[in-house]
Design brief:
Blueprint (H helix, E strand, L loop, with lengths): L2 H6 L32 H11 L10 E5 L6 H15 L3 E7 L6 H11 L10 H12 L3 E7 L8 H9 L3 E7 L3 H4 L3 H7 L1 E5 L5 H15 L7 H14 L2 H17 L7 H11 L12 H12 L3 E2 H10 L6 H13 L3 E6 L7 E6 L11
Parallel strand pairs: 1-4, 1-5, 2-3, 3-4
Antiparallel strand pairs: 6-8, 7-8
Helix pairs in contact: 4-5, 9-10, 9-11, 10-11, 10-12, 11-12
The structure holds adenosine-5'-triphosphate (ATP) and magnesium ion (MG).
């Protein structure tokens, strides 16, 4: 570099082509499991105590985990499961997300897969359960059914309660009222313990984000005031997932302009982008997005390609890619859900299902 430029330091703040602000951006992924889950020790211990009888070959306790979105319910349980796996082979942890696996058949199929049983083809729900029972009754099991309120039938729970001898069942939901409204027969069989995950306060949010940031970014690339704004915004939204999004997007915005530092300007840009992903009410959607949502409501569980055709017939504009992006936004905000089907006559395709228009406030009951 010519001396003049060097002395001016113009290039010192510019990121070179082969440089990155990220050390390991995976650490910002929503499903990354950090080594420690600060501020959730009490909750983890509480759940560990429900599992504890299994170590003595007795039946465990069942527990309902509830609390608002993005406050560490899923990660606390997954982290606990990792520890359990390191501790013993005699207790088998099984984690199912009921948003994705929303019927007893899909759940039993997933459990078989997790247990390493491969001959599931053409088997019915009950046949699959017989296999599960045979494997698990040689040991003990801890089941976690996450987003349990999304499940369409509960017969799998009856089966587990009746046929698996030594188990703990953990149910996670945003809506405590879901459990209040359960059938009394099921309620009395489950006898759920109950733990509420409280929202994090500002200091806790700062601590969690700082921690993740240290794994994800190269040292000293974050300006203090920029990080403080990211943490403050996260504290307002009360959802760590949004905080992780802000951190990652801030890094991306800084890299886009080859900045060596992440500044307030980059964070503000990231926050602007975030508003696309934290919509609680349909009225906050753009007009054409609302129209697409309406279309999906009228044509729930259709293939994405067919929906696009209908959308065009109704005068919708834009190419397929744009349509896909809008579908993704609606799905991220949980207005709709998308599931991929494999095989079949037409190969792989995406099915779009209508879910809701507005955030229900059931959690407050
Ligand atoms: N104490 C914590 N330490 C580190 N990361 C955390 C902590 N709490 C939450 N997170 C992170 O925040 C994100 C959201 O947490 P998680 O997925 O557990 O939320 P949740 O309570 O299950 O939300 P939802 O009800 O929407 O499923 C995850 O990426 C998780 O790793
Ligand atoms: Mg979760």
């Amino acid at each position: 570099m010519p001396k003049l430029f060097k002395s001016m330091g113009v290039f010192n703040n510019i990121l070179k082509d082969n440089e990155s602000l990220f050390r390991d951006s995976v650490a910002l992924d929503y499903d990354y499991i950090p080594k420690l889950i600060p501020y959730r020790e009490y909750e983890q211990r509480y759940i560990a105590n429900c599992i504890k009888p299994l170590f003595a070959k007795r039946n465990g306790k069942n527990v309902l985990v509830h609390g608002s979105p993005g406050i560490g319910k899923t990660v606390a349980i997954k982290h606990l499961f990792n520890e359990l796996e390191e501790e013993t082979d005699d207790i088998v942890p099984i984690y199912i997300n009921c948003w994705q696996k929303n019927t007893s058949f899909k759940i039993n199929l997933d459990i078989c897969e997790q247990l390493g049983y491969k001959f599931t083809h053409n088997k019915k729900t009950d046949d699959l359960f017989d296999i599960i029972k045979d494997i698990l009754n040689k040991k003990s099991a801890v089941f976690c059914f996450d987003e349990i309120d999304k499940v369409e039938d509960l017969s799998f729970l009856y089966m587990i309660l009746e046929k698996i001898y030594r188990k703990t069942i953990i149910l996670i939901t945003n809506f405590k009222i879901w459990a209040v409204n359960l059938d009394t027969r099921l309620k009395s069989r489950l006898t759920l313990e109950d733990i509420n995950f409280k929202k994090y306060n500002h200091t806790e949010i700062k601590g969690i984000l700082k921690n993740r940031l240290q794994y994800a970014f190269v040292s000293n690339v974050w300006e203090d005031d920029a990080f403080n704004i990211a943490a403050k915004k996260t504290a307002e939204i009360e959802d760590i997932r949004s905080g992780l999004y802000i951190l990652k997007e801030s890094g991306n915005c800084a890299e886009e302009v080859s900045s060596k530092k992440i500044t307030i300007e980059h964070v503000n840009k990231a926050i602007e982008k975030l508003s696309d992903f934290s919509i609680k009410d349909k009225t906050e959607l753009k007009e054409d997005e609302q129209e697409i949502l309406e279309l999906i409501k009228e044509n729930s569980e259709k293939k994405i390609g067919d929906l696009f055709e209908l959308y065009k017939q109704k005068g919708g504009s834009g190419v397929y890619k744009t349509f896909q992006r809008k579908i993704e936004k609606l799905s991220k905000n949980k207005f709709i859900s998308i599931s991929k089907t494999q095989g079949g006559a037409e190969g792989n395709t995406t099915i779009v299902k209508y879910e809701r228009e507005t955030e229900t406030k059931l959690n407050e009951y």
